[in-house]
TrEMBL record:
Species, as recorded: Novosphingobium ovatum
PANTHER family: IRON-SULFUR PROTEIN NUBPL
Record note on quaternary structure: Homodimer.
InterPro entries with a match to the protein in the record: Mrp/NBP35_ATP-bd, NUBPL-like, P-loop_NTPase, YlxH/NBP35
Protein name (database record): Iron-sulfur cluster carrier protein
Keywords: ATP-binding, Hydrolase, Iron, Iron-sulfur, Metal-binding, Nucleotide-binding
Gene3D superfamilies (UniProt xref): P-loop containing nucleotide triphosphate hydrolases
Family: Belongs to the Mrp/NBP35 ATP-binding proteins family.
Positions of ATP binding: 100-107
Function per UniProt: Binds and transfers iron-sulfur (Fe-S) clusters to target apoproteins. Can hydrolyze ATP.
Amino acid sequence: MTQDRPLPQPDALKALLPAATQARVQSLRVGDDGAVTAVLDASGLDALGREVLEAEVKASLSPAPGVSAVRVGLVADRPAPAAGQAPASAGPLIIAVGSGKGGVGKSTLSANLAVALARQGLRVGLVDADIYGPSQPRLLSTEGRRPEAKDSKMFPIPSPFGVGVLSMGHLIDAGKAIAWRGPMAAGALGQLVDAWWGDTQVLVIDLPPGTGDVQLTMVQKHKPAGAVIVSTPQDLALIDATRAMDLFAQAGVPVIGMVENMSGYMCPHCGNVSDPFGCGGVEQAAAEAGLPFLGSVPLDLAIRQASDAGQPPAAGDSPQGAAFARIAARVADWLAHHPAARG
Ligand SMILES: Nc1ncnc2c1ncn2[C@@H]1O[C@H](COP(=O)(O)OP(=O)(O)OP(=O)(O)O)[C@@H](O)[C@H]1O
């Protein structure tokens, strides 16, 4: 890559890392080509914790101007915890993505979050639990595929973006409305989660929109490690988002944070951003609820077109992809501090 910008300063780059991660940095150098080499002390972290740490550093530094690549070296003075404590064998950590109402971009966020986390070095899977309108097969370019099964458990379908995916859309014909209710829906969804996820570390679940019985059963049964709530900035959507917070609280699932989608409209012609639905409402709602704000994604025609074409923006290097990468970096940071990822 030709370096046409001034090289970033190591101290400025270090400041981009979360405080706990900064404390682990032993050295951070920037090469003439903009490639960053960071060496961190990974003492006390097990395999998952080390991978999450590496992913977090890459996610935090890669978007910085002038950075062409990020290499991470991990050294450990103290040994990792005993194998019995390693969480990897306990199955993937589940992150549920929920919204109080439909159409706010929950599926778009789920797909791009999964792809962005995978680009940051984690082994990620995605379950599309949106039985009433499964859209992940299209979003992740796996339409028309059928999962194979062994011992009545399904194998995830590999997407071209490094994320395995299972969706009701892979089991039924496209366009067929699913009129399932209650236990039947819960049973079908359970099979998607209890599939052969192998060494997958993080399983993102795209929940059905709303806060009814299907959602509650799903959350209670599969006990996500954390939840991400998506909302648009409008007041009505925010009221629904509050219901989603209640749902997770009821099930004892911590909320990782809130995302504002369709935040400001990016004009495809002039690039100016206007605010047809308002802007910043979700950040304010998160602050009022004492929850972290994970970031915002603009209402951008390019996002809809790429999504419709099965090319998640998070898989590319566009500004739209960067918005998802920033949100994923915060989620990776949360995972890095999750008890299951620490020694
Ligand atoms: N930031 C965005 N900019 C432009 N279009 C978007 C954005 N986010 C989502 N969309 C589009 O909005 C529509 C609804 O998004 P999506 O399916 O992700 O929402 P959802 O909350 O999962 O909806 P549902 O409740 O129907 O499952 C899709 O056509 C999607 O491409």
